[in-house]
Specification:
- This protein is α/β, with parallel strands linked by helices and 164 residues long.
- It has one domain (5-163): Ribonuclease E inhibitor RraA/RraA-like (Glucose Oxidase, domain 1).
- The chain is 21% helix and 38% strand.
- It contains five helices and eleven strands; from the N terminus they run αβββαβαβαββββββα.
- Strands 1, 2, 3, 4, 5, 6, 7, 10 and 11 form a nine-stranded mixed sheet that branches. Strands 8-9 form a two-stranded antiparallel sheet.
- GO terms for molecular function: 4-hydroxy-4-methyl-2-oxoglutarate aldolase activity; metal ion binding; oxaloacetate decarboxylase activity; ribonuclease inhibitor activity.
- Substrate binds at residues 75-78, 97.
- Mg(2+) binds at residue 98.
Length: 164
């Protein structure tokens, strides 16, 4: 049963923060949630790929790509790595490519948009720490909930409260 962000806002509005950024949902998985893991990079996907190669254990990787849509930092191969390694989904303040292939995957990725241009491979970026975009602080260990209605962040898991 999906966890709907609209229902979470109805029951936990004071605890949640809504990401005010026009991110689009790509992939067949129309909802996902999990503990937040973060990284920062700009037009480079080496650390992103390396992080997704680790077991995600149901976490959501939140990537501050600096808002760039000039080139894609996620493509179908990197998305497939994340899916294989049990990441719940990805939220990227940046672009992806291979839209049709990602659209066929049972995986969810929020991104600002898409670009056919691939990223650099300079190993630029850092893992961990709070990343901020869309007027929301994404703090590692906090929870994120994402679906067609948008993205919510909470300091704790609130979905069990909503179901009980």
């Amino acid at each position: 049963m999906p966890i709907k962000t609209a229902d979470l806002v109805d029951t936990h509005d004071a605890e949640t923060r809504f990401c005010h950024l026009p991110l689009r949902l790509f992939g067949r998985r129309r909802f996902f949630h999990g503990r937040i893991a973060t990284l920062r990079t700009f037009e480079d996907n080496v650390i992103l790929k390396r992080r997704l190669e680790q077991d995600g254990e149901g976490q959501v990787l939140v990537v501050d790509g600096g808002g760039s849509t000039r080139c894609a930092i996620i493509g179908d191969q990197i998305a497939a790595i994340g899916h294989k390694n049990r990441w719940a989904g990805i939220i990227v303040n940046g672009a992806l490519r291979d839209v049709a292939e990602i659209g066929a995957m049972e995986f969810g990725i929020f991104a600002l948009g898409h670009s056919p241009k691939k990223s650099t491979k300079l190993r630029i970026g850092t893992e961990g720490g709070v990343v901020t975009f869309g007027n929301v602080d994404f703090t590692p260990g906090h929870w994120v909930y994402a679906d067609d209605d948008g993205i919510l962040v909470a300091p704790r898991a609130i979905h069990e409260d909503a179901r009980g």
